[in-house]
């Protein structure tokens, strides 16, 4: 790389505010370039056949039909769903990249589950982040947002498919983080939400969050950010207990 190219790059970094010149003229890092926020889970990807396969596989995992450590039979799925093996493989690779499946050479894909220490770590981080996020979100919430979150909460009902319940739960928490308008917090929280919400858990436990979510929404409607933060903290502690109980059952 030529010296002129380096100088041009340095000047652009200075113009952007990422680098400043010290009193002696040396470039000094002053800020990190902004990183794009990780995209939310695409529960409805563009390719129709891949979407059918991905949603069906995830529903089987979240609903308990495919158990932790069980090997996924791609050929059987292809025949059952009437989609090509290529679409099934693409869906399996997508879930593997998100940590839901583990690809084993010459043996296919195996359903994974977070270990107890991993679940504890995820909830330790969420307990640090989400009560604070709710405090910030309380400054920006309005009736439209609260109605949107209420609809998400209704969709967590036991009568809905497991996949749809988990989808609604995921968006409930992510939407609050978006409204808080704290980019670093959202970027930190997003991968935790993605990994946890696609982790298997007993199908009759997810809807236990409905009254907990509702208590949080009631606090936000009252404009009480501190109470909402307390409700979020209590909800996360109960959710952690549910996840750990399930891990005991499958370990």
Keyword list:
251 residues; mainly alpha; Arc Repressor Mutant, subunit A; Four Helix Bundle (Hemerythrin (Met), subunit A); 3 domains; 3-stranded antiparallel beta sheet; two-stranded antiparallel ribbon; 10 helices
Question: What's the helix and strand layout?
Answer:
Elements: H1 3-16, E1 19-21, E2 27-29, H2 48-62, E3 71-72, H3 74-81, H4 85-97, E4 101-104, E5 108-111, H5 116-137, H6 143-154, H7 162-180, H8 183-197, H9 209-221, H10 225-250
Antiparallel strand pairs: 1-2, 3-5, 4-5
Helix pairs in contact: 2-4, 2-7, 3-4, 5-7, 5-8, 5-10, 6-7, 6-9, 7-8, 9-10
Q: What's the architecture of the largest domain, going by CATH?
A: Up-down Bundle
User: What proportion of the residues form beta strands (DSSP E)?
Assistant: 5-15%
How would you name the oligomeric state of the polypeptide chains in this document? single chain
Helix content: 55-70%
How many discrete structural domains? 3
Following the backbone from N to C, one meets helices and strands in this order, namely HEEHEHHEEHHHHHH
